[in-house]
Amino acid sequence: MKTVNVAAAVIISGGRIFATQRGYGDYKDGWEFPGGKIEPGESPEQALVRELKEELEADVIIRDHLITVECDYPDFHLSMKCFLAELAERSHIRLLEHEASRWLLPEELDSVDWLPADVEVAEAVRNYLNSK
User: Fold this and answer.
1) Distance CA 32, CA 20 (A)
2) CA 112 to chain CA mean position, Å
């Protein structure tokens, strides 16, 4: 089975967590933490900065590694490195590829239909925030 290596951002601002809804592909309409594929020669952090600029016009500051999720989908294995991140000063978010987005309070994390790999990330976010 093919492995797809991706990086995802858990963007937290004002106590809210940013989530996006896929606007294309087999998993259209599923909710996820934004990010994308790691290209050859890129670190996960570099890929994340590039992907968030391409998909959201957002400039981000990558903070700490939160969790790496390994998840089997029907056609591939996903290895997703997830990082805590924040928007850079004066940055904005503009959806270029996603259908929708939401800023969720921690208690609202279960209010969206997460893609399978992102379910584990949402739980890690909840645990992280509860430990603060």
Assistant:
1) 5
2) 14
